[in-house]
Each structure stands twice: as structure tokens, then as C-alpha cells.
Amino acid sequence: MPSPTRIAGLVVAAGQGLRAGGGVPKQYRGLGGIPVIVRAVDALAGHPGIAEVVVVIGEGQEAMLAEAFAGRAVPRAVIGGQARRDSVRAGLAALDGHEAVLIHDAARPFLPAAVIDRLIAALASHDGAVPERLRRDSLALTAESLGEAVPRNGLARIQTPQAFRLAAIDAAHAAWPEGSEATDDAQVARAAGIVVAIVAGDPALDKLTHETDFVAAEARLASAMVSRTGMGYDVHRLVAGRDLWLGGVLIPHSQGLDGHSDADVALHALTDAILGAIGDGDIGTHFPPGDPQWRGAPSHRFLEHAAALVSARGGRIDHVDLTIICEAPKIGPHRPAMRSRVASLLRLPESRISIKATTTERLGFTGRGEGIAAQAIATIRISEDL
Ligand code: MG
User: Fold this and answer.
1) Which CATH number is 48's domain given?
2) At 303, phi and psi to the nearest 5?
3) Last residue of a domain, one of 175, 209, 243
4) Residue 120's domain spans which residues?
5) Widest Cα–Cα separation across the chain
6) What is the H or E stretch that residue 215 is in?
7) What is the bridge-based pairing of β-strands 162-165 and 100-105?
8) Which residues have their alpha-adjacent CB atom under 5 A from ion ligand 1?
């Protein structure tokens, strides 16, 4: 049979379970700064063989879904049912024009592209395919049975996503006796006579169930993080008749900084330092100075945007260090307020924010009071492959 062309990803995320801790259903918990459900959806959506991803959420979870995907495209969502099978059926019913589907549990956020490759390849010869967690002692056996019809009774090491031709799995679910629960979709498929191929799974795909699973996953992610540093530098001219915004704080002074935005030179340097650490251009790339929408804009928006870009990559800011260079005003009295403001903008404890000030001994443009300069360094941790 020809390979299926339009393949959907269906992420089942309707669970209300709180036993993994964290106060929210586990699929909405953050893991290395990125919610579990976002990782599961991204893994499917980022694969070139997947045309669309639909998520099945629990009743009342719309707001949690929106929050989890804040700043990203929110996937199409349908409301699931009490039992997993009800949720899968609701999801299948929402698919339209797809030839095949990969049904995946949100609680398995680490989905290697190679597993998706193998599942899609198996659908060229089978109506269904599931990944099996490889064990060292069964490698030879599994390699031999790859892609073969291997009806087995034990499903203990079967993972998701499970791949099916859509018409076949639809029919299998319709034929399954109402009211009886199924372990997974492979069981439903096999009961309907579908030959389900077994492909190699991956240890990373194991389900997150308990708090210890989250702790282990966090540790694994942390060990794959590297430290990066970025620097920023900025200067703005002091003029009469403008407010002086510095470090996100309005400072009483005879002059203010001139610029297209509020000209907060300190926050601009910090923003550039953070953008530098992720190698994502500079403040002018993201907020072109000629763009009218940034006229008079408060600079905290630039800083928050840079911090959000770090979060979106699963990174975290470890520390920032800012030096403000001017003859006047005196920065010392305003330093605690600036530190507190920057900490709240970056959502970090103040212990990770350093703000310093210096003069240039009346030398140069800062010494003559013509302008204020600022320089900053940001240290972040981020996944090695980004
Ligand atoms: Mg600037």
C-alpha cells in the first residue's frame, strides 16, 4: 500500500491527575522551563511528516492550555471525555482529510524524531504501528521483528505515539464494546484484527507519572544545558524637557534621555545582553527604531520580550550585571528600586541582579553630562543544541 500522505498528530492531554505534584495536571507542568504539553506538541508539529497537531484537553482546561502556549501558536483543541478512549474518539472525530494519525500521550514529552520516522515508515506496509521500548537483552529479537506483524499479548513496554491509518483506527474504536476501557489504541486495533507493526521506541519516551519522574527529567535537561554570556552597550543623549527613565525607574532630574522609546539606556543595554546570550540579533532587530508603534514605548517591554525569548527556548537567566555610566544624577539612592524593578521584570530573585554605577571622572561625553551610557552582561543556561 502507498505511504499515507496527510498525517495528523493527536496529543491526548485530558488527564486531571495531580499525583505527580506541582498543583496542576502533569501535562501543564513546566519541565526545564517549558510545559510538558508544549514539548509533546512541538515534537510532533516540528516533524516534516506531520501535517497538523490536534490536542484533546479536559473540560475546563482551555485557560491552562492557553497559558502553557503563551507566546506560541496554540494548537487546535477539542474537549475529551472521562476515559482515555473517549478522549481519543473525540480527537479522531476532529480530524478531517487526514489519512493517518499518530496518537500520543502528552505525558511523554521527549519524542525523538527518529521514532516518528519509524512509525510513518511502518505505515507503508501496515495499518498500525507502535513503538516498543528496547531492552538490551531483546535488541536482536526486536531488530528482526521490525516492521513485521507481531501480535503480542504483553503490552507492558509499548509506548506512544501509536500510528494508524485513520479509517482503520476509526473502525476499530467503533467496534470496541462500549463501557469497557482499553489499555491503549494498539489493544483496540488488535481486537479489530488490525495487524500492528512494532518499531523501536526510545527510553526518553517513558511516561512521566510520579514526582520522581519529573525530578529525573529536570536533572537530565539540566545536564544538557550550557552556560552562555551576552553583552550589551548603549548610549542616549541627555536633553531638557524629557522624563529620566533609568533601570525601569522614573528618576527626578533636570534632564531626561532622548530617544524614540522612553530611552531607558540601562534597560536597553540589558535587553541587548540577553539577546546576545541567545544569539538573536539586537534590540533594533526586534523593535526597529523607525517603527511608530515603539514611539515613547516603555522599555520594560523590550526587556520582557528578550526574557520571553530565552524562556521559549527552554533557557533560564542565571544572572545579569549592569553598569550605568554618568556624572549625574547620583545612581546610589535609586539602585534598590532599579534592582527590584529589573528582578520583577525578569522574574528573578534580586540576588541574581547586579546594578552598579560609575562616573568617568568628568572625562568624555558622560563626564560632561551630555549623555548616559550603560553596559550589561547576561549569563544564561540553555539547551546545548540551541
Ligand atoms: Mg537605546
Assistant:
1) 3.90.550.10
2) -65, -45
3) 209
4) 7-209
5) 86
6) helix 211-223
7) antiparallel
8) 234, 268
